[in-house]
Design a protein that fits this description.
Elements: H1 12-37, H2 45-50, H3 53-82
Helix pairs in contact: 1-3
Amino acid sequence: MDTDPDAARPGDALVKAGGIVFIVGAVATLATMAPLFLDTDPFPSYAWAVCMLMGVGFAISAAGVLRSAAAQRTAARASQAQA
């Protein structure tokens, strides 16, 4: 088993990518909602579709967490089998 605490573990990349996608979606949501409060013309419907990236980013991050948990469970079972 890898003892380096800074080593990349399974699922880490998914969590990071999901966080980035979530932030992009959050910024898009703020930008899309701003015209509603500023009494300007609203953005077209495809701009609202970009807001869905928040949910996509959350799902990607959740998949990364599940992958990390599965890898830890597998490592724990392997270490119990050796003992």
